[in-house]
């Protein structure tokens, strides 16, 4: 749902799929996350999970 939202609003993103790139599981766990998706900006997490309310703030940027 998050990817669909980003695509529909033409927000560029880089995807790291934890199934295909399991090293990102460790990366996310080190940052304290236990679920996906995690959206980062400049390596700082800004959204965890599907949060349409917070995703809408990306449109304004």
TrEMBL record:
Annotated Glutaredoxin domain residues: 1-40
Pfam families from the UniProt entry: Glutaredoxin (PF00462)
SUPFAM superfamilies: Thioredoxin-like
Entry-linked Gene3D superfamilies: Glutaredoxin (3.40.30.10)
Record-given protein name: Glutaredoxin domain-containing protein
Species of origin: Liquorilactobacillus sucicola DSM 21376 = JCM 15457
């Amino acid at each position: 749902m998050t990817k669909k939202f980003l695509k529909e609003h033409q927000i560029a993103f880089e995807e790291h799929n934890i199934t295909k790139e399991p090293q990102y599981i460790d990366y996310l766990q080190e940052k304290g996350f236990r679920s996906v998706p995690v959206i980062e900006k400049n390596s700082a997490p800004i959204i965890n999970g599907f949060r349409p309310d917070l995703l809408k703030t990306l449109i304004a940027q």
